[in-house]
Protein 1
Amino acid sequence: MTTNSRQSKFTNIPPNERLPQWIKPSIGKASQIEKVQRLIKGYNLHTICEEGRCPNRGECYASGTATFLLGGSICTRSCSFCQVNKGQSPHPLDEHEPERIAKAVQILNLRYVVITSVARDDLPDHGASLFPKTIAAIRQVIPDIAIEVLTPDFWGGYKNNKEAVNAQQARLKTVLDAKPICFNHNLETVKRLQSEVRRGATYQRSLDLLKTARNLAPDIPTKSGLMLGLGEHSEEIIKTLRDLRSVDCQQITLGQYLRPSLAHIPVQHYWRPQDFDKFAEIAKNFGFKKVTSGPLVRSSYHASNT
């Protein structure tokens, strides 16, 4: 069984504020959007751009960037903010998915590719091997393409013990050994709101993953992202930025959370564009090497801008 815009405890909760006028999705060329959507459907592929209803997908398609979703379209986690379908029985892995993604990348003449995945807690390696297989397939047709990865935590339902930590690190190493240009893992929200927003993940576990990535592959930059508007306070955002820098995270994205449907967690507050500018300045002062901050910013927005 899968779920999407299902009934949930959030269904009858109205928004706290009206959608402000500064929330205006960017517009790309209609022809390019149609081309990408037609190709994705024809090759039976998934992108987080479409599955997550990203407001910037038109602009990104037009600029030669896309984010492919590995492991199918059903996630084994039930995060309260995410539009991707949820279910405990995802479809079997498609062994030819990497080659089809590579072909789509070639046809679209993409210059920068982000690959992410649904959480596959049902698999022995939690889907870690999907990343190097796809990276290898893409590089076989376009050797010099830039590939960024955005991964789940590769943890699942294990207890917090040494065996679980070692298993997670082995999965992470599998991804890093494929030499992506950037390793991204999103913290999503402040510590206080983690259990409500990120089901199955924890704040410290995500920080530890980013720290381990730096230790295992110091030549690969790490990146994380925060959604604002879930009820966090300014002080909590600043504390989260500090925590990310404490594990030497080099890049950060900050964007406004937008409720995908009435079944998802409501928006508590719309931060103003000048607030995003303020947090960007703070992040830069903390030492982040790349900061992308704005109401419609998402994890892969302007990812190719270095």
Protein 2
Amino acid sequence: MKKKKTGLPDTGGSRAYIEADIRNDYRRLTNLLIEKQMTITTMESATSGQIASLITDTEGASAVLKGAFITYSNEAKIMQGVPAEIIDQYTVYSRQTAEAMAEVCAGAYSADIGIGVTGTMGNTDPANPETSVPGQVFFAVFFRGAIRSYHLELEPQPTRLAYKLAVAKEVCDVILPLLEE
């Protein structure tokens, strides 16, 4: 599976996204957050809440996830605090928008970790046809006052759920090492 990565570990250009493995990774992530007494939140567009859902699949997740935002439209992102100027200047599908999403959601819940995800899954977005590229995803992680941002270009996936799980896997693979330091 080919994907372009910015800031992500090299996986040799091919990667299988196996749902059971991804769920196990999120169980490990949630338990680590509970153990370290850290909180996490998300502002998800492309993944439409999949990451928050994976976190809450583990018992005790209410201690670490106080809330999350699903901001599927540009208007929803702006309503939750993403500056319209960022979307206007860089587009909704950009590193800058993902970074703003991560920072805004972390601030809204006073969370230790904020995750922002924006991008296009398997088809062109009819609301943003000039700027959406199928399989192109940007995500950012706000952690300890710093923001790290990432860019993915995923190969076509068989379903929208498969796209969401692929992105969730990439996000988890970034956060787990931060918690294990």
Protein 3
Amino acid sequence: MSKKEKFHSRQYLKLKLERKDLDEDPFVQFDLWYRKILEAEIDFPNAFILSTVGADGVPSSRVVLLKGYDERGFSFYSNSLSRKGRDIAENPVASLCFWWPEFERQVKIDGEVSVLPEREADEYFKSRPRQSRIGARVSRQSEVLANRQLLEEQYNQFRSEWKGKSIARPDFWKGYVVNPVRFEFWQGRKNRLHDRFRYIPSPDGGWSIDRLYP
């Protein structure tokens, strides 16, 4: 069997997902899965694809890191002047997609985006390594950069000028939280007959759960 044939014939055989296995609350269900991912000690367990759409209607995706989740939603941090920051300012909605191949699982979350309180952004920024804080200050994220050398020179200059000084969070560096309006939990299965369940808000204030065709 060639590499191409092997790639296309791959089967998903590790786990299954039944309706009875699901918690009625999608936040709890996410937490159950996420804790198993953390216990497995895989690389970048909190990485997810963040998709946004600006005023021009053109979608854009990139990998970012989850920094927390609670009853408000799922949080991450970014330069608000970047493309994703501009997209969110123009159209405050986003889609998150977690993919954990070790478990053949993915979770998709669609929701509305809001900015976290500045106090929380300040606290998280202070917790970052000093080198990362400098990087956040000097990077004009998503703008054209003439060459790598220029970026490194700006980094070294800032590091020299701020030696021994506290590096505060810049105004453009913000925290965001995605408040979900839809969840999908996907479990890979044999013959591409995957298990896929959707949570959407129900009129009674809870969540309606439906199995979807894969």
